Amino acid sequence: VIDIRKLYAQTGVFTYDPGFTSTASCESKITYIDGDEGVLLHRGYPINQLAEQSSFMEVCYLLLNGELPKQDELASFTRTISRHTMLHEQLTTFLRGFRRDAHPMAIMCGIVGALSAFYHDSTDITDVQQRMIASHRLIAKMPTIAAMAYKYSVGQPILYPDNSLSYSANFLRMTFGVPAEPYEVDPAVERAMDRIFILHADHEQNASTSTVRLAGSSGANPFACIAAGIACLWGPAHGGANEAALNMLREIGTPDRIPHYIERAKDKNDPFRLMGFGHRVYKNYDPRATVMQKTVREVFSALKVTDPVFEVALQLEEMALNDPYFIEKKLFPNVDFYSGVILSAIGFPTSMFTALFALARTVGWIAQWNEMITDPDQKIGRPRQLYTGPTQRDYVPIDRR
Ligand code: ACO
């Protein structure tokens, strides 16, 4: 029996809010979401404007520093990031320890966590300059790590970064290029990649960001904190949903099979959910999904390809949005619904989708981590619990149980 009165007496207030549905864990100036209106702002700027008019490097600068960069500031920031793209050569030895069929997220978790063993200087979280260097290192090295994970899985040699290319073009080349052969990055694909990174850059206190903050609240180093965020992002209810959404669309296969899946999603005895649908905060269209849907068309047209799953996705969306169950529960497509269709058209296997999300979200995680470290009200994160186990009882020796 829980003695709630005792808890009240001890703490004054006690709230029980599983999943933090209505409890703020921190103050933040980075990202604002109005879930009812479908609004997402980074440092005040609407996500659709950033996705359409800025670059990922600009958004990284904005999230980290609070303001859009001037021309010279952007040039200097981009140069700094380029300088940090290489990995310590010994990390490739570490990579070779993984099985070839290791999931890229397993590799990302391991290698990012291991960065703390290679860059000791950046683990001093009391030094503002070192915190910024750690942030730059993480943003710069994530594409190299993600591409390495991919190359390892397909048995191709790893390509070193080419710092004359943009952040997105460099990542595409490291992923799809092969040594001794020129690799031309299609500008439309480069732009789409950049936009996908922008759309995933930050999303306030989602599960993985909260994990990064919680890990960081104990004073853990930034590489360890980001590794914790990657682990959390991996789950199918969070970052893993883009992989699950495309698998679901492929399983549906043709529009005539959609009604069956909609019925399954509504059936409370069936654990199936429409992947890429629904959101804790958005009770309206996720603004990122709107940009993502538009980007699918641009990529298809640039690459002169099409994919029947896109038609399935469009029709599934239309049917769900007209279904009383989805209307009543305010379930709309989220960022993951269309991203898989684009990533697949570019050539990424589904196992890389969540790794790309982790790459892009790193800037959000590290910006939030920096904000937390400098918050004078910051305490170690230590949620309370509502104990529902047995009350005190006496130990029973094993021969009398
Ligand atoms: N399909 C069918 N029903 C759904 C779905 C869905 N995708 N999402 C929510 N519901 C229903 C639930 O069954 C529940 O119904 P009930 O009231 O009858 O019990 C109701 O809507 C509320 O759902 P909860 O799970 O309580 O909502 P919560 O805010 O906890 O979950 C979540 C949000 C995890 C995103 C959920 O909508 C989901 O599982 N979606 C599919 C996975 C997905 O796309 N995740 C990506 C999220 S975005 C991101 O992380 C980048």
Automatic annotation (TrEMBL):
PROSITE patterns the UniProt entry points to: CITRATE_SYNTHASE (PS00480)
Active site: 279, 336
Molecular function (Gene Ontology), one example: citrate synthase activity
SUPFAM superfamilies per record: Citrate synthase
GO cellular component: cytoplasm
GO biological process: tricarboxylic acid cycle
Superkingdom of origin organism: Bacteria
Cited Pfam families: Citrate_synt
UniProt entry tagged with the keyword Membrane: yes
UniProt catalytic activity: oxaloacetate + acetyl-CoA + H2O = citrate + CoA + H(+)
Keyword DNA damage recorded: no
Pathway(s) of this molecule: Carbohydrate metabolism; tricarboxylic acid cycle; isocitrate from oxaloacetate: step 1/2
Signal peptide start-end: none
UniProt cross-references to InterPro entries, sorted A to Z: Citrate_synth-like_lrg_a-sub, Citrate_synth-like_sm_a-sub, Citrate_synthase, Citrate_synthase_AS, Citrate_synthase_bac-typ, Citrate_synthase_sf, Citrate_synthase_typ-I
Annotated keywords: Membrane, Transferase, Transmembrane, Transmembrane helix, Tricarboxylic acid cycle
Bilayer-crossing regions: 337-360
Protein family according to the UniProt entry: Belongs to the citrate synthase family.
Name of the molecule in the record: Citrate synthase
